[in-house]
Amino acid sequence: PVLRLLEAQLQDQRREHEEEMEALRNQMDLMQEELEKQQQAFLQTLQLSPEVQVELGLQQEITRLTNENLDLKELLEKLEKNEKKLKKQLKIYMKKVQDFEASQIMVPVERRPHERKMQVAVQRKEKDFQGMLEYYKEDEPLLIRNLIT
Question: What's the pLDDT tens digit per position in 61-85?
C-alpha cells in the first residue's frame, strides 16, 4: 500500500513536471518568434534612410512616453481619490474629538476638584498603607469608574 501511494505521488509529480516543461517550451517558442520579428524589424529599419530611422525612433519614443503618461495619470487619480477619502476621515475624527472635548467640559465643576483631592489622597495613602486608600461612600461610583478607565 505505501509503495503504491509513493508510486502514485511520483507519477503525479512526473506529470506536473512534464506539463510545466511543455508550458515553458511554448513560452520559449513564443519568445523566439517575438525575437525574430524584432530582428526583422531592426534589419528593415537599418535599410531605411537615416531620416526615416530617426522618425521611427521618435514615433516609438512618443508612444512609450504617452503610455507612461497614461499610467502616471491613473496613479494620480488613485492618489487624489485616496486623499479625498483620508480628508473625509480626518473631518470625522476631528468632529469626534471636538464632541469628546465638549463632553469633558460638560462634567460638573464640583466633581473636578474632588477628583484631584482623591488622587492626591491615593498617592499619600499608597506610601503609608501600601495600596490601601480612604474614600467617602458617595465617591464610590466615581472611584469605580476611574479604576475601570
Answer: 999 999 999 999 999 999 999 999 9
How many separate helices (H) and strands (E) can be counted in the chain? Answer: 4, 0
- CA separation, residue 141 to residues 12, 38, 123, 124, 138 (Å): 70, 83, 19, 21, 7
- Residue 55 grid coordinates: 522618425
pLDDT digits (tens, 9 = 90+) for 110-131: 555 454 555 544 444 444 455 6
- Residue 121's contacts (CB-CB under 8 Å, 6 or more residues apart) are 133, 134, 135
80-89 burial code (b ≥16 CB/10 A, e <16): eeeeeeeeee
Instruction: Work out the angle between the directed axes of helices 50-105 and 2-47 (0-180°, nearest 10).
Output: 120
Half-sphere exposure of 114 (CA within 13 A, CB side): 13
pTM of the model: 0.38
Tell me the chain's radius of gyration from C-alpha atoms. Answer: 38
Distance CA 31, CA 42 (A): 16
Which residue type sits at 109? V
